[in-house]
Amino acid sequence: MRGAPAGALPCYPDAGPCRRTPPETPRVTLDIAAHLTRDADRIAAALDDALDAAPLDGEIARPDRLIAAMRHAGLGGGKRLRPVLLIAAARLFGRDDAGVVTAGAALECIHCYSLVHDDLPAMDDDDMRRGQPTVHKAYDEATAILAGDALLTLAFDLIAAPAVHADAEIRLAASRELARAAGLGGMAGGQMLDLASQHAPRGETDIRELQAMKTGALIRYAARTGARLAGAGPDDIDRLTRFGEIIGLAFQLADDLLDVEGDASALGKAAGKDAAAGKATLVALKGADWTRAELARLVEAATTELQPYGTQAEPLLALARFVAIRDR
């Protein structure tokens, strides 16, 4: 992973449990829960508007059952981490308007479509998501497939909106990068590798590549695109890209740790499924203690990337810490 220092950090006994960051990491005073809620609510409002029953110009009709299934997938809770990260990255460089929220809603549509399809019996076969029945359970498999398809295509309608950026070339770049982050060489390809990894031996390099694609690609996109939409220069875009790569890995490590140690009622979905399916994860390969130390190292690496921005980067630093120590 580019930008991350080599070597894992040890636990810090004098700093409390190993999951906490090293004592030299600056304290974050931001109320991250309130911060997440505020921007997540903006994303939810944008999705609510995008999933209105009235057809748009160029559309013929919006079937009621399909709209209901899409709303179940897109408006049924969730942290909205990816779009919140996009908004926070744009805010760092001075932009925080409705167009950035629209870009975040496009990204959330991609994420929600992926969850709908991942939950299908042919994939991970999950019955619960975000504390409620998965779309194929609440409706049926065919409707779930179509709801995922429609959310995927809606994402590209949203990212192409003129409000996202006045320059059509910037919007085109955002659209192209979203396709690549979500598709063959990104999230969808990572899901294919994940399915192929079940009960198959995988080394650390293979697992890191899989996770960088399946989970990290969209998180990397969020940080990078937020900076780009706000007019950041090439060096800043590169720095935010590295930051996104770091917390993308941290998110997946924390997710894998929660699958091993988390409580299903708190998670809102089944726990222990990765181990039962024989999936390759770094937690399974390296152990929980190594994973906690690696999460601490990743938070420190993310902090290093943000240092040039001083206190203005506090929301992004808070997000990095939240990703690493979350309990759901």
UniProtKB/TrEMBL annotation:
PANTHER family: FARNESYL DIPHOSPHATE SYNTHASE. One of its GO terms (biological process) is terpenoid biosynthetic process. The keyword Hydrolase does not apply. GO terms for cellular component: cytoplasm. It comes from the Bacteria. Keywords: Isoprene biosynthesis, Magnesium, Metal-binding, Transferase. One of its GO terms (molecular function) is metal ion binding. This is Probable farnesyl diphosphate synthase. InterPro entries: Isoprenoid_synthase_dom_sf (IPR008949), Polyprenyl_synt (IPR000092), Polyprenyl_synt_CS (IPR033749), Prenyl_diphosphate_synthase (IPR053378). Belongs to the FPP/GGPP synthase family. Its cofactor is Mg(2+). CDD domains: Trans_IPPS_HT.
